[in-house]
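[Q] Does anyone have a clean C-alpha cell version of this?
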Amino acid sequence: MKDTSQHDPGTNEFNIDRPMVRRYLRASSLLGYVGFFGGFGLMMAIGPIIEGFENGGIVWLVPGLVVGGSFLIGLLGYLIFGHFRATRIAEGNRLHVEGDFIIVDREHGMSSETRRIHFRVATDYGYRQNWLMKRLGLYELMIYTTGLSTTLLGVKNAPKVCAELARLDCERG
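[A] Here you go.
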C-alpha cells in the first residue's frame, strides 16, 4: 500500500518515517561517539608530537596509535550502544488521536514513555530540524502544553501534521 497522506482518518494515526529515523539516530550516534573519542585521542597525541619537535624529530608511531585507537574505541562504542538502540527507538515511536487526546508513545532505548495530552491543554504545535535532519528530510514534531513540551522524531509531513492537529483542536473547541 502506497503512503500518500500524513494521516489515516480511519485510525487517527500519523505516520512515522522509521527508516529515516533509524538513519538519523545512527548517523548522530556515530558522529557523537567517534567525534568524542577521536577528539580525545587527538588531544592525547599532541603531547608526543610536541615532545618530538622539542627533541629534534617527530615520532609518528605513538600519536598515530593513540589517534587510531581512539577512533576505534569510538566506533566500538557506537556499535555496542548506538546502532541497535536506533532501531528500538525508531520502532517504538507512535502518534495518534483518541477522542479528545493526543497519544504520544516514545521509546528512549532503555525506557519508554506514553503521554496522553488533552486537546484543551495543548497550547501550540510546531516542528524543527537541525542540520542533519534537513539533510535527511526529517522533522521533529513538538506539542506544547502550559508547562511542558513533548517532541516526537520522524513524523512524516510535520508541517501538515501540525495544521491537522490544530484543525482537530479547533473542532473540539
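[Q] Thanks! Anything notable?
[A] The first helix runs from residue 18 to 54.
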